Amino acid sequence: MYHCHLNIYLIGSKLDSFEFLKGMSPLENFTHDFFRSDSPEKELTEKADAVFLRFESEDGLKKALSHKKADADFIVISEKKGTDLLLQYSDRISDIWTLPLSDSELKFRFLNWQKSQKRDKDYWETKNFLETTINGSPNLIWYKSKEGLHLKVNDSFCETVNKTKEQVEGRDHFYIWDVDPNDPDNNAEDCYESDRLVMESGVTCTSEETVQSGNEKKLLTTYKSPLYDLDGSVMGTVGVAIDITKERQYEQKIIEKNNTLESLFATIDCGVICHTVKDSRIISINHAALELLGYHTLDQLEKDGFNVIAPTVMEEDKPKLKNVIKSLKNIGDSVNTEYRVLHKDGKIIHIMGSIKLLEENGEQIYQRFLVDCTFQRIQESNEREALKKYQANLTQALTVDYNLVCCIDLDTGNGYSIRAEDCHAGVIKNFFSGNINWEYSISKYIESCVYPEDHEIVTNAVSLDSLRDALKESSISTVNYRTLCCGKTRYFQLKAVRAGEWGSGVALGFRNIDREKNDEMEQKRILEEALMQANRANKAKSVFLSNMSHDIRTPMNAIVGFTALAMTHLEKKELVEDYLQKIMTSGNHLLSLINDILDMSRIESGKMHLEEKPCSLSEVLHGLRNIVQADINSKQLDLFMDTVGIIDEEVICDKLRLNQVLLNLLSNAVKYTPAGGVVSVRVTETPFPNENKANYQFIVKDTGIGMSEEFVAHIFEPFERERNSTISRIQGTGLGMTITKNIVDMMNGTIRVKSRQNEGTTVTVSVDFSVNTEAEKPRPIPKLQGCRALVVDDDFNTCDSVSLMLQQLGMRAEWTLSGKEAVLRTKQAVSRKDNYQVYIIDWLLPDMNGIEVIRRIRKEMGEDVPIIILTAYDWSDIEAEAKEAGATAFCAKPLFFSELSRTLNDIVSPETRKKDLKNNMEHKCRAGRLLLAEDVELNQEIAVAILSEGGFTVDVAENGQIALDMLKESKPGYYQAVLMDIQMPVLNGYAAAKEIRSLENKELADIPIIAMSANAFEEDKQEAIRSGMNGHIAKPVNIEVLFKTLDEILY
User: Fold this and answer.
1) Residue 896: closest CA among 655, 640, 658, 645
2) Cα torsion for 228, 230, 235, 236, to the nearest 10°?
3) pLDDT of residue 213
4) Alpha carbons 816 and 802: distance in angstroms, whole number
5) Can you list the pairs that 553-556 forms with residues at least 24 positions away whose Cβ atoms lie under 8 Å?
6) Most C-beta atoms within 10 A of its C-beta, which of 157, 439, 518, 828?
């Protein structure tokens, strides 16, 4: 029961007559404390649970009311004349006691007030008990109005419907249980009907109802009773529901399991019988047991007379089986036994039986399992026969392969020799001839012939006890040892074979195993060499880690150092630009080191794979030239690139990996070639007959420092680097060639390296690519059909290759290796009036440079004939001089068929070229608004700066969710594209892309999305595409790649 303590505050100077109230006893469960003052005091008023105020002034009344607790009773004792004023405060005063009051009236009034307090607390207790009981119940409890609205529900009800009481109370069945009123399968009408029957009949109704709770249905047992109003009329229903979903599911599972067990009992191959101990009454038996015992039905078995054992058990096995069964005395005892059954057709079945004594309903029963083991017994019998034959064969084999064979009885130690071919220069015959005593003969043999250090091991191995123990575990036992024969150490083996039962003896053989021992020693040598290689690789890895510590710190030191220098020289623009260029170079080098390490890790874990797509060899080779051109120029090297016999330049391959292979080889050539040296790249094609496939060779050659033959043998091993004073100053991981070799292997290609120190290196990569048959091939140019063309180059292969291309375009091609001869042929053509219509001239010729050749041809031919410069140099370096001499166009080496065709087309159809240039210029004029989703502030700043420089306006979102919300709130076309980071809080890039692609507004859903992430592996790119993105840009962002990707997607 509850306990209530009341603080009672008496206020007023004229309350002396009320003093006797303090002596009145509190009611049950109550205690009182009285306080009194002449005027209201704030502290006492705030503390009081009941205030009795003798009304003397309105100010005192206001003061007391302003400080009382909200739930405190406030009773005013006043003369009758003051009651009119008090009515103004009726909403804040609990009661007014009008004076005069006799002591009896005052006691009566105070007692009634006490009773009122008790009633309130009793009601609170009852309500609290009821609320606790209702809300503590695991069952659903609710009160509903006649209209079906839920007036009150308990906590379990709210948990079940996954809604709060505020959401439930006052709502109907459809809303609470997520029921669609238009769904013909909803059961709301059944619920309303049961409510109606309860209210009409006035009795409790029990039923089962299925309701929808979220994504699952629940089965409830409901108890509904009428809810009565004060006047006794029905005002609604009160319901209690028990969730029996799991119980019903469990019941269903029990039924299913019982069905399964019954089916299993009927169909299992194992026989099962249950029968009573007392009278052998069969309680249950399955079909398998009947078949094993030789019957078709239970009636047949019972008619034949079943008494503990079946009549079909073989007579000689019946006593044993009956005794075994009767041996079970205690409940739970079990035993296994084997017996045979004779079927009426004469077939004998071997049965492995398991019997257990159980008690069921006060009656003892035998539970028996019968397993057919006939096949195993037949197999064991066959194996025993085979073992005997095998042992006989072993004994026979010993007589063939072993120099000495003896047969010994291990019980007596006596035996005889089967074969005694001497292998110890006549000594052995002295010990093992005719009838022998094993222990005597073997001890003499060990003393005379066995290597002294092996005496003990042989003696222990061949004693009668040792042989008996060894042959219990296995049918064969061997021991190897050394002998002294003719002054030489030789290896021998003694083999003991169990020949049948022990009484048949043991065969022992001796043989020379020199050859096997030598082979074993060779294998050991191979293993030791492999261990040395593993140790070498481990040492190389340690050296690699040491090198990496140096190689990574070197560019990091440059980045930190030049950054600090740039900060201190901000006013010197040229100096800062130089520092920034060095920072970028160091950063790119550091990135290449990290990429090599990551690539090697992916190769070793098997995660690197090829993605074969259409690829242009022309783009690959020219891209390589552009990448290394700056290094070529800075090191003052000559770079020559050409093609030989390239017919199909459009192939199917992994462009990224091919570029990685060639760039690594070319970078190495540049890195290890001193100033003034030459680096060359040649590509050749050998088509496969009658196949859309060809073999391509990429030959990278340099005149650099070369390598030692010893290092070339290990060049493809990871972490290997040549160790000399020159190379030690060149940074690298020692992984480049390993990665290259692995990629070439993945392409089913080959890579060969030829090198000599101080003479340079040649690396040849040979791979087979499928030809892209869908690629558009250059077509003959109508305006040039039958026209003469002259190719001038000092390299025969270039002349031959370019001439073949011109012929495919329908021209009459000729070539010469000399600039002077080109001028002479031009003069002859003019005199014969059969002019050349096109000239293709190498920029550098040995006898006369290309500029002079062009000038002299122009002098003979005029300004109309096209002259194309063919050069390995950057066009911008020679453009002014070439145009001044009269060059019409330029083609870079290596020259591909498509480039030559395009250049000639541009010459004869200049309007097409102008249109293309106009389109390209339009693409360069970038404008528009991009949405950048990036959570790192530094990355935000870099990306916004780069994109703004490119002409874009950029809005930034801190995570994928914000980006999604910003896109939803925008109009279609407001953003041209979304640049999406992957690893972001709240909503990552993959999930954000999927959400965007599922937007209802198709224009917003189709907006281009480009991943811009440090997740740069191939699987990351594929995951971006699968998430609905249009492209992928790896961080750190390459500005050229960024704008190229944006141009391709947006324009």
Assistant:
1) 645
2) -40
3) 74
4) 12
5) 554/586, 554/731, 555/586, 555/587, 555/589, 555/590, 555/593, 555/731, 556/586, 556/590
6) 157
- Is residue 589 predicted with pLDDT exceeding 90? no
Alpha-carbon dihedral angle through residues 616, 618, 620, 624, given to the nearest 10 degrees: -170
The residue whose two tokens read 């083996």 is 493
Tokens coding 464? 């009668």
The residue to which tokens 């009981």 are assigned: 133
CA dist 189 and 1004 (Å) reads 43
| CA distances in angstroms from 22 to 19, 31, 35, 77, listed in the order given | 6, 11, 10, 16
- Provide the greatest CA pair distance for the chain: 155
**Adjacent-strand bridge partners of 74:** 51
Token pair of 475 as six digits: 């049918």
Residue identified by tokens 């025969």 is 796
Question: Exposed, middle or buried, 925 (CB in 10 Å: 0-12/13-18/19+)?
Answer: exposed
pLDDT at 978: 96
CA proximity to 833, closest of 853, 813, 803, 861: 861
Q: What sign results for the dihedral spanned by CA atoms 981, 987, 990, 993?
A: negative
Fold of 268-372: Beta-Lactamase (3.30.450)
The fraction of the chain above a pLDDT of 70, given in percent, is 87
Q: Is the CATH code 3.30.559.30 the one for domain 926-1050?
A: no
Q: Which two tokens stand for residue 662?
A: 């060639």
Classify domain 137-250 at the CATH superfamily level: PAS domain (3.30.450.20)
pLDDT single digits (tens) 222-278: 998 998 888 889 999 999 998 888 888 888 887 777 666 666 666 677 889 999 998
Residue-range domain boundaries for the chain = 4-129, 137-250, 268-372, 395-512, 609-771, 782-921, 926-1050
Angle at 709 between CA 766 and CA 749, to 5 degrees: 15
The sign one gets for the Cα dihedral 645, 648, 653, 658 is positive
Half-sphere exposure of 621 (CA within 13 A, CB side): 27
Q: Which residue did the predictor score with more confidence, 384 or 140?
A: 140
- The residue whose two tokens read 């020679």 is 878
Structure tokens at 102: 């006799």
- Please give the residue that has the higher pLDDT: either 423 or 902: 902
> Strand order of the sheet with strand 404-408?
435-437, 414-420, 404-408, 506-512, 488-498, 476-485
pTM over 0.90: no
Task: Please report the DSSP string for 888-935 in residue order.
Answer: -EEEESSP-HHHHHHHHHHHH-HHHHHHHHHHHHHHHS--EEEEEE--
Helix (H/G/I), strand (E/B), else coil: 57: coil
Instruction: Calculate mean pLDDT across residues 42-50.
Output: 92
**858, two tokens:** 């122009």
Q: Is 609-771 a CATH 3.40.930.10 domain?
A: no
Cβ-contact 1010, 979 below 8 angstroms: yes
- Map tokens 């005593």 to a residue: 437
What is the residue whose two structure tokens read 């009549």?
Answer: 311
